[in-house]
Design a protein that fits this description.
With 205 residues, the protein is mostly helical. The chain contains eight helices and no strands. The chain starts with 5 loop residues before the first helix and ends in a 6-residue tail after the last helix.
Length: 205
């Protein structure tokens, strides 16, 4: 869904990556720092109802974390370890965001239903990512779906930020929409792998 803006985004990330390539900063440093920043912001601020402040902190570190790939390409250090670390820590950051929202609803927002929806968004997001990773581990492509990680995080953080500005119902709408989109995406990926296996095709061919 966000492929249309990737060229514009790259026009910012590529020069930034080239600048950082002249410093001692490594892609893995950015990955770890971004994850710590998102997790700290989400788990420290969301549970106490500071939704706007939490969104600002998380968004800053999410955007900063996007530099790791550009820096790795600029330094020529792209490799399996960096890809593994980035993908794994992305799950930690995502879990922190939706875990923080769940804690707010259960203990502060007094809405256990939406707390359950936030938990569902957390679990379904992990399943969407796992389906792709497992399929690729078996040699099958699985890059389909209407709501990949970036879209899911964008919806969740935008809804939380607007809720922090006291826009009514926006967080509930965002979480329910995200729950549906994540479910559909998971189904699309399972179906895509099933069809690829039946057709006897794989990404290695």
């Amino acid at each position: 869904m966000l492929n249309a803006i990737r060229p514009a985004l790259n026009r910012v990330l590529v020069p930034a990556g080239q600048f950082l390539a002249r410093t001692p900063v490594t892609p893995n440093m950015i990955t770890v720092t971004g994850t710590i920043g998102v997790s700290a912001g989400a788990l420290a601020l969301f549970p106490i109802g500071e939704l706007f402040a939490g969104t600002v902190v998380c968004t800053f570190f999410v955007l900063a974390d996007m530099l790791d790939g550009a820096l790795a390409r600029a330094k020529g250090t792209s490799g399996p370890w960096g890809a593994f670390l980035d993908s794994t820590l992305d799950r930690v950051a995502d879990a922190s965001v939706f875990g923080g929202l769940m804690l707010w609803f259960v203990f502060g927002g007094h809405d256990r239903l939406l707390g359950c929806v936030a938990l569902y968004c957390l679990v379904s997001g992990v399943l969407v990512s796992y389906a792709k990773a497992r399929a690729e581990g078996l040699g099958y492509r699985c890059d389909v779906g209407i709501a990949e990680r970036t879209e899911r995080l964008l919806i969740g953080l935008t809804a939380a930020g607007l809720a922090g500005l006291e826009v009514p119902y926006v967080l509930a709408i965002g979480l329910w929409a995200l729950a549906v989109l994540s479910t559909v995406t998971f189904g699309q990926r399972v179906l895509a792998v099933r069809q690829a296996i039946a057709a006897g095709t794989s990404g290695e061919e």
